[in-house]
């Protein structure tokens, strides 16, 4: 099963202010973007599990005009806090690149490929 790192042209993270992180997942074309969105691989629940946070605090923005998905959630520590290990938030994307993207049935007859 492909992972986001195999399908995205870029995955990056950064601060969205001192209390939030944002992860941008950008795709090379509309077809790849739509495949990932349709697969349901990038959800608040999936991100919550990977980052050990409450899925209710995760926001997912599917941005079709840019063939991109933006994920935002609260930082575990405020940027610059004595316990903060990544002041700019640029190293936080690592847990997302290994998200597996299940195949999505496309085209074919009603019921899928080869259906009578």
Question: Could you describe the 3D structure shown?
Answer:
The chain has helices at about 5, 30-40, 45-50; strands spanning about 10-15, 20-25, 60-65, 70-75. It is of the alpha+beta class and about 120 residues long. The chain has one domain (about 5-95): Alpha-Beta Plaits (2-Layer Sandwich), CATH 3.30.70. The protein has a four-stranded antiparallel β-sheet, with no helix packed on it. Strand 3 (about 60-65) and strand 4 (about 70-75) form a beta hairpin. The longest helix has 10 residues, at about 30-40. Mean pLDDT is about 90; it is low at about 110-115.
Q: In brief, what are we looking at here?
A:
The chain is of the alpha+beta class and 116 residues long. It has 3 helices and 4 strands; from the N terminus they run H-E-E-H-H-E-E.
Which features characterize this protein?
116 residues; alpha+beta; Alpha-Beta Plaits; 4-stranded antiparallel beta sheet; 19% helix; elongated; disordered C terminus
Question: Layout of helices and strands, plus pairs?
Answer:
Layout (H helix, E strand, L loop, with lengths): L3 H4 L2 E6 L4 E7 L3 H10 L4 H8 L7 E5 L4 E7 L42
Antiparallel strand pairs: 1-2, 2-4, 3-4
CATH topology: Alpha-Beta Plaits
Largest sheet: 4 strands, antiparallel
Give the overall shape. Answer: elongated
* Strand line-up of the largest beta sheet: 1-2-4-3
Distance between the termini: 27 Å
Give the helix/strand class. alpha+beta
**Helical fraction:** 10-25%
Order of helices and strands: HEEHHEE
Question: Which spans have pLDDT < 50 for at least 5 consecutive residues?
Answer: 108-116
Number of helices: 3
Secondary-structure arrangement, i.e. CATH architecture: 2-Layer Sandwich
Number of domains: 1
Kindly provide the radius of gyration, computed on alpha-carbon positions and rounded to a whole number of angstroms.
16 Å
The overall strand count is 4
- Per CATH, the class reads Alpha Beta
How much of the sequence lies in strands comes to 15-25%
Q: What is the average of the pLDDT values?
A: 90
């Amino acid at each position: 099963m492909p992972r986001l790192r195999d399908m995205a042209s870029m995955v990056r993270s950064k601060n969205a202010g001192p209390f939030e992180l944002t992860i941008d997942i950008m795709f090379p074309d509309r077809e790849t973007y739509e495949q990932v969105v349709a697969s349901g691989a990038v959800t608040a629940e999936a991100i919550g599990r990977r980052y050990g946070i409450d899925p209710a605090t995760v926001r997912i923005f599917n941005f079709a005009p840019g063939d991109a998905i933006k994920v935002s959630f609260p930082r575990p520590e405020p940027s610059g806090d004595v316990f903060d290990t990544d002041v700019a938030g640029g190293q936080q994307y690592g847990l997302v690149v290994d998200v597996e993207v299940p195949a999505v049935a496309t085209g074919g007859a009603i019921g899928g490929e080869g259906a009578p």
